[in-house]
Amino acid sequence: MGMRRGRSNKNPPVFSHEFVIQNHADITSCVAMVFVIGLMFQATSPVASLFVTLQHNVTINGTENAEPYNMYTCGIKDLFTVFFYLLIAIIAHAVVQEYVLDKLNRKMHLSKVKHSKFNESGQLMTFYFASAAWGIDTIMREGFHSINQLWQEYPHNNMPFMLKFYFIIQMAYWVHNFPELYFQKVKKDEMQGRIQYTVLYLVFIVVAYSLNFTRVALLMMVLHYIVESVFHLARLVYFADKLDIANHCFMVFNVLFVLVRLGTITLAVLTFWYGLQQSSQDSIDVAAGNFNTRLVRITCLTATCLLQAWMMWNFITFHLKRIRERTVATRKLRSPTKKKGKGE
How far is it, in rounded angstroms, from Cα 207 to Cα 165? Predict the structure, then answer.
């Protein structure tokens, strides 16, 4: 929903459902500004900083020639930070909707069904592309150039600022999808699919963040986001009636989708079965943030492989269904011709 989208000449009653939906971006902006303004006053700064700034920072003593530097760990206070950036995600969602997607919608004159799917793909493509670019930049910046770094020096409980901020934004964005179901008036038949993939993203990211498997999770997310950005770009082009370009984009997506599924499984096997096994321990050490036990590794590996297999199954099922539909359509086109020939 845009900041002015859907407003009619008749003003709905204050605090009614329609009022909240039409003005949710403005309301959210006001709530976020309360936390930002709170940073300016000494009395409220400690509480406001709990929401706005990253928590659980630790100081690492440098070498003789290097100064101490700050790193970050995960903790319960991250929930406050996620809440604040959830508000920012809602505002950003509204800005993209109003100033980009709504203008394109008015030019293309889409039906209600296509209109909803266009908005969904537009929002997701923006997020996927930005997250993939940010993730690649983080990988290059932190020097994760070798595959061995996915498991070496585990536990990776000390995170640099950008890596922790990346995961905070990821969690905030996927949590914000739940209130957006209400703000966008998503239909019940579309709601199940959106809730399904939102929950899957949240579970994957939260578990990886909590168990300090952030490096391998970052690489998997970047690969997945690149593929998904291509898919939603193809959908947007398709809705714009650029069918030739859309077909080429879908072909690229089909190839990348299979490659990324195989690549993700390979990364999971190398990390959880081979790499982390070298420093495995018998029990979980919560204080040290070390969850490298056989049970945890097998569970993570199994969950990752099952998720990839489920996605691949849906992918194959979808294409088989399309092939059957095309075959039936072709037969229907040919049958009148045959009947006409017999009649003559």
Answer: 16
Calpha distance 220→170 (Å, rounded) = 13
The secondary structure of 244-278 as a DSSP string is: HHHHHHHHHHHHHHHHHHHHHHHHHIIIIIIIGGG
Which residues have C-beta within 8 Å of that of residue 277, sequence separation ≥ 6? 297
Backbone angles phi, psi at 340, to 5 degrees: -65, -40
Q: 29-64, pLDDT tens digit by residue?
A: 999 999 999 999 999 999 999 999 999 998 887 666
Cβ contacts of 105-109, under 8 Å, gap ≥ 24: 108/239, 108/240, 108/241
Alpha-helix runs per DSSP H in the chain: 17-22, 24-38, 45-52, 78-96, 102-108, 112-142, 161-183, 188-210, 214-239, 243-268, 294-343
Q: How many angstroms separate the Cα of 229 from the Cα of each of 96, 124, 143, 237?
A: 16, 7, 25, 12
Q: 10-28: per-residue pLDDT in tens?
A: 678 877 888 888 889 999 9
Mean pLDDT for the chain overall: 90
Q: Please give the average per-residue pLDDT across 127-143, as a whole number.
A: 94
- Return the SS3 of 65: coil
Distance, in Å, from the CA atom of 92 to the CA atom of 88, rounded to the nearest integer, reads 6
> For the range 58-61, what are the long-range contacts, defined as Cβ-Cβ under 8 Å and sequence gap of 24 or more?
58/158, 60/158
In DSSP terms, 285 is beta-bridged to 290
Q: Is 69 helix (H, G, I), strand (E, B) or coil?
A: strand
Whole-model pTM: value is 0.90
Sign for the CA dihedral angle at 24, 30, 34, 40 comes to positive
